[in-house]
TrEMBL record, chain A:
Protein name: Ribosome biogenesis protein BOP1
Family, as annotated: Belongs to the WD repeat BOP1/ERB1 family.
Signal sequence region: none
HAMAP family linked to this entry: BOP1
GO CC term, one of those recorded: nucleoplasm
Originating gene: BOP1
Subunit structure: Component of the PeBoW complex, composed of BOP1, PES1 and WDR12. Within the PeBoW complex BOP1 interacts directly with PES1 and WDR12. The PeBoW complex also associates with the 66S pre-ribosome.
PROSITE patterns found in the cross-reference section: WD_REPEATS_1 (PS00678), WD_REPEATS_2 (PS50082), WD_REPEATS_REGION (PS50294)
Source organism of the structure: Apteryx owenii (Little spotted kiwi)
Location relative to the cell: Nucleus, Nucleolus; Nucleus, Nucleoplasm
TrEMBL record, chain B:
Primary role: Component of the PeBoW complex, which is required for maturation of 28S and 5.8S ribosomal RNAs and formation of the 60S ribosome.
Signal peptide residue numbers: none
Species per Swiss-Prot/TrEMBL record: Apteryx owenii (Little spotted kiwi)
SMART domains xref list: WD40
The name this protein goes by in its record: Ribosome biogenesis protein WDR12
Family per similarity comment: Belongs to the WD repeat WDR12/YTM1 family.
WD repeats: 100-136, 136-171, 185-217, 253-293, 302-325, 338-374
Length: 681, 423
């Protein structure tokens, strides 16, 4: 501190009286001095302080009776045992003030004198000095480590006269040295030495630095196509879901849960909750409290990030258009039915079943209003109505064009009806054929009873009644027109019966029940018999009497079945709105499963000549598909949906109940729950 | 407004105007042009009464503004366009509505009488006033077609074909109003759907569901043709159920693979038959040979021939009426398609007096009157029927007849324009 010129006392030296200076050989730092003073010597120090800090006052007022220290700056303990300290100008001893106070006096002094705490002893003189307020203040400031001078500003802006910048004006006005412009001889000598060394080849010029980089590409030779390429394996972290409306502090009212929803939310498992918080509404953003689950969520996010394995999915980059098989356009697959042409009205309840004569002139329909109606196809004229005892479940026209016979399943019996339509010779011959039956001598045990029609029934056209023990669900003819099969609504092994019309002989082909039989079908050419249960279609060889194949339909409940006239393809409609196409040569699983309908399929049908098949469904539509079967075994069938035909009104949730193709024209008939039969051409 | 140079022309001398080019507004429609002609005629002849005209540009009736029509037909607008005009065809006037007991399957009318076949197994004769004259019962099934053979003041010969596979030749004594079955034509093995009598009135042909076309003699005789009957049928029963003497066909023409829906004589020795096998076949009646086949792609329900324009019109299940030229050898192309019906066209009939007009009935309950010069839209729609129209006929006296499944036979008077007859 003392080294700085600023710390010096501000009075100039020449202002001191000439007599005095020798008494102050050195300035004493007041603070330090004071602090190290023992209490007995503090008087002198205080005096000195007093002098120091009030110089004018001290010099002007205290000089005549000065009892100051005259011994100089010597260790004061030298005078410890003397009653005086030093001598004055006359050589007399300057006596210390009398100090005879014992401990009691000191204590009393301490108790009584209010200025006791600011009284110090001057060591130099041994006198007690009472410190003034300024001095006490100074002591306090020094104790705090502050500057003694109140007015001193330690943080004055420093002006740096000597900086690295070259100023336009010199700091000093001194003229430049001579040596500054006379070349240095020493340097000349050094330079000549260097020049000589270079000439002699002792110093060589510095080698130029090579420009080759010191680093190299670690992955330069990596295979760019390798799967494990470093950059390829980078999987960026999955992004968090962005906040939505429900996260808002003031969400729209539809996002706010009601009381029941809140209750339901609370009762849910935390993992099952759709939202992991309850959206709440606040008056303003200011009112939103701290989010209590914040740490949880960050933690879970961190868990997600490091626990969930991130794997790159190898995505095959294929144009979805390429995956769709190239199908021909429907208009290239003409002809197929496109519009509704005729509506056959007359039934008062749902029309369950349809059949058509092999020539295509007559249509027969069976209905829940307990009638069978015969229609002229070309005009929708009802030619005949046959009232029956019950709901007509199934109907089938004999496919043999030389026989005019219709099998009708009503309740527990199958009626064989001669409709007396068409060629007179034909239906006459049919009657003769039925009448020519001669009963065998011995009665055979049969599962059913064959009863000839009564006269009254005969007048209505009924020729034979085959009485079953259970309600009959379905009846279907063999292609030759002699055999027919009936399906009973039963659980036992008596579900399927095969009847021979000419011999009036019935048999039960199955010993065991293999499930609920839905429908049966004869193969059009070969001696095969198809039995559809709920989930499987079994193919039996009638000659060898064995199971040939079991087709898995992949459906829950088969409703209907139809066979391609070629005999190698089968379609199955099911109540779970699927249509399965089987290629018998290909597999026992469906070649294709078509899901065009929206509701349960009720019926499927093949066209006899055209490559068409149709399906009718509860959704009220008939879907016509092109189903081309090739003779070439290598070529799979081509299935193209070509037309959705709508027209039937939905009644009791039922739409189309039966579909049927015209035998010669590309026309399709459909019967519906609305009591109509419709022809689409 | 843009103007078009036009020259007017007409066949009728009564309404002829000067053969000079006029400048007519491009946007003018039929009414504007008709007014223009009427003004021209009134300027020439003060006694002229207002007449509605119809206009033909390039043989097509004008139905839209002139400029739009020319754009459609690709006629250049810079040159003088020739517009032909004819007196506007008046709408057919409803005359009678004859009630039947059942569906009407067929109708044929002469100048005096109307013969209808019905689904109640009878044929009926009506006077033109709609009075029932005679009911001809004898068939055991639906009568599918009827035809007049001969008409005298005393007696008439007529034919009825039925679903019971027979055709009956009846003699109707007009004076005594008695009808007698002369011959029962047997031989078809299916419902006889169509019959047609040739122009000499001595033969007729029939088409049946059994795919056969048979030619019969229409001349009544006293002899009965021998018929091979099924031996096991009692002779007596056969006799009792038979009406008239049995007649067998002169010729049987087989070639169709499906039911024959319509037959007609297109010439003295030429038969035309339309079938469900999507073909129209032309047969030589003398040799019994097949002359040509016109192949369509839909079932034909009806066919009609006009000797005036020598064209066949066919009605099929795809809602179109198609015009064919039976004499064209190269590809037997469809000349024209008339499309406006929304259901099967069950019946078509050419006008016997007008070469451009025909009538058609359809399952959409509408009878349409067509002019082949306006193939986009029919001249008139006759929407009187409440159910399917099954048959139509057009007599030389200008009577339009249509019968259908609503048991009604509607008669319309169609005023034939004198100037157009034979045009």
């Amino acid at each position: 501190m003392l080294s700085s010129p600023k710390e010096r006392p501000r009075f100039p030296q020449q202002l001191l009286p000439s007599a005095v200076p020798r008494r102050f050989p050195r300035t004493i730092p007041p603070g330090e001095k004071h602090l190290c003073l023992p209490e007995s010597q503090s008087l002198r120090a205080a005096e000195a302080l007093c002098v120091l800090h009030h110089p004018h006052a001290a010099f002007l007022s205290t000089l005549p009776q000065d009892i100051r220290n005259t011994v100089g700056n010597i260790p004061m303990e030298w005078y410890q045992d003397f009653p005086h300290i030093g001598y004055d100008l006359e050589g007399k001893k300057i006596y210390k003030p009398i100090r005879n106070k014992d401990e009691l006096d000191k204590f009393l002094e301490k108790m009584e004198n209010p200025d006791y705490w600011r009284t110090v002893q001057d060591k130099m003189t041994g006198a007690d000095i009472k410190l003034t307020d300024e001095q006490v203040d100074l002591v306090h400031r020094l104790q705090k480590g502050q500057f003694g001078d109140v007015h001193f500003d330690p943080y004055e802006p420093a002006i740096d006269f000597f900086s690295h910048e070259v100023m336009i004006h010199p700091v000093t006005n001194r003229p430049a040295d001579k040596r500054s412009f006379i070349p240095s001889l020493i340097e000349k000598e050094k330079v000549s030495k260097l020049v000589h060394a270079i000439k002699m080849g002792w110093i060589k010029p510095r080698k130029p630095k090579e420009d080759t980089p010191t680093y190299y590409d670690l992955w330069a030779h990596e295979d760019p196509n390798s799967i494990l390429g470093r950059h390829k394996m980078h999987v960026p972290a999955p992004k968090m879901k962005l906040p939505g409306h429900e996260e808002s502090y003031n969400p729209p009212p539809e996002y706010l849960p009601s009381e029941e929803e809140k209750l339901a939310w609370e009762q849910q498992e935390p993992a099952e909750r759709k939202l992991n918080f309850v959206p709440r509404q606040y008056r303003c953003l200011r009112a939103v409290p701290a989010y209590s689950r914040f740490i949880h969520e960050r933690f879970e996010r961190c868990l997600d990030l490091y626990l969930c394995p991130r794997q790159r999915k190898m995505r095959v980059n294929v144009d979805p258009e390429d995956l769709i098989p190239k199908l021909p356009k429907p208009r290239d697959l003409q002809p197929f039915p496109t519009t509704q042409a005729l509506v056959y009205r007359g039934h008062s309840s749902l029309v369950r079943c349809l059949s058509i004569c092999p020539g295509g002139q007559w249509l027969v329909s069976g209905s829940d209003d307990c009638t069978v109606r015969f229609w002229e196809v070309s005009t929708a004229r009802c030619m005949k109505t046959l009232p029956l005892a019950g709901v007509v479940k199934s109907i089938s026209w004999n496919p043999n064009p030389t026989i005019c016979l219709v099998a009708i399943a009503v309740e527990q019996s199958v009626l064989l009806v001669n409709p007396s339509l068409g060629d007179k010779l034909l239906y006459g011959a049919t009657d003769q054929l039925l009448e020519s039956y001669v009963a065998p001598e011995e009665e055979r045990v049969q599962p059913v009873q064959w009863v000839a029609a009564t006269t009254e029934e005969h007048g209505k056209g009924i020729r034979l009644v085959v009485q079953h023990s259970r309600p009959v669900k379905q009846v279907t003819w063999h292609g030759k027109g002699d055999y027919f099969a009936s399906v009973l609504a039963d659980n036992s092994n008596m579900q399927v019966l095969i009847h021979q019309t000419s011999k009036r002989w019935s048999q039960n082909p199955f010993r065991k029940s293999k499930g609920l039989v839905q429908c049966v079908l004869f193969h059009p050419i070969r001696p095969y018999f198809f039995v559809a249960t709920q989930r499987y279609v079994r193919v039996y060889n009638l000659l060898k009497q064995e199971l040939t194949k079991k087709l898995m339909t992949n459906c829950k409940w088969v409703s209907s079945m139809a066979i391609h006239p070629g005999g190698d393809n089968i379609i199955c409609g099911s109540y779970d709105s699927k249509l399965a196409w089987f290629d018998l040569d290909l597999s026992t699983r469906p070649y294709q499963l078509l899901r065009h309908h929206k509701k349960a399929l009720r019926s499927v049908a093949f066209h006899k000549h055209y490559p068409l098949f149709a399906s009718g469904s509860d959704d009220g539509s008939v879907i016509v598909c092109h189903g081309m079967v090739y003779n070439d075994l290598l070529q799979n069938p081509l299935l193209v949906p070509v037309k959705v035909l709508k027209g039937h009104a939905l009644t009791w949730d039922l739409g189309v109940l039966d579909v049927l193709f015209h035998p010669t024209q590309p026309w399709v008939f459909s019967s519906g729950a609305d009591g109509t039969v419709r022809l689409f051409t | 407004m843009a103007q078009l140079p036009a020259r007017f022309r007409t066949e009728s001398q009564r309404y002829a105007v000067e053969d000079v080019p006029f400048s007519v507004p491009a946007a003018s429609e039929v009414a504007d042009l008709s007014n223009l002609i009427n003004k021209l005629l009134a300027a020439r002849d003060e006694e002229h009464k207002h007449v509605e005209f119809d206009f033909l540009v390039n043989g097509q009736f004008l139905r839209v503004p002139l400029v739009a029509h020319m754009e459609m037909e690709n006629i250049p607008t810079e040159e003088v366009v020739e517009i032909e005009y004819v007196e506007k065809y008046m709408a057919p006037q409803p005359e009678e509505c004859i009630f039947h007991d059942d569906w009407i399957s067929s109708v044929q009318a002469t100048e005096e009488w109307i013969l209808t076949g019905s689904y109640d197994q009878t044929a009926r004769i009506w006077s033109l006033e709609g009075k029932s004259v005679m009911t001809i019962a004898g068939h055991t099934e639906v009568v599918k077609d009827v035809a007049w053979v001969k008409q005298d003041s005393l007696s008439c010969l007529l034919l009825s074909a039925s679903m019971d596979q027979t055709i009956l030749l009846w003699e109707w004594n007009v004076e005594r109003n008695k009808v007698k079955a002369l011959h029962c034509c047997r031989g078809h093995a299916g419902s006889v759907d169509s019959i047609a009598v040739d122009c000499t009135r001595t033969r007729f042909c029939s088409g049946s569901w059994d795919k056969m076309l048979k030619i019969w003699s229409a001349v009544p005789t006293d002899e009965e043709d021998e018929m091979e009957e099924a031996a096991n049928r009692p002779r007596k029963k056969q006799k009792t159920e038979q009406l008239g003497l049995t007649r067998t066909p002169l010729t049987t023409l087989s070639g169709h693979t499906e039911a024959i829906s319509s037959v007609l004589w297109s010439d003295t020795e030429e038969i035309c038959s339309a079938s469900w096998d999507h073909t129209i076949k032309l047969w030589d009646a003398e040799t019994g040979g097949l002359k040509s086949t016109l192949t369509g792609n839909k079932v034909f329900n009806s066919v009609s021939y006009s000797p005036l324009c020598r064209r066949l019109a066919s009605g099929s299940t795809d809602r179109h009426i198609r015009l064919w030229d039976p004499r064209s050898r190269d590809g037997s192309l469809v000349l024209l398609s008339l499309t406006s019906h929304t259901g099967w066209v069950t019946s078509v009939k050419w006008s016997p007096t007008h070469e451009h007009q025909l009538i058609s009935g359809s399952l959409d309950n509408i009878v349409k009157l067509w002019d082949t010069r306006s193939c986009k839209a029919p001249l008139y729609d006759l929407a009187a029927h409440e159910d399917k129209v099954l048959c139509v006929d057009w007599t030389e006296a200008g009577l339009l007849l249509s019968g259908g499944a609503d048991n009604k036979l509607y008669c319309y008077k169609y005023p034939a324009i004198a100037s157009d007859v034979g045009a």
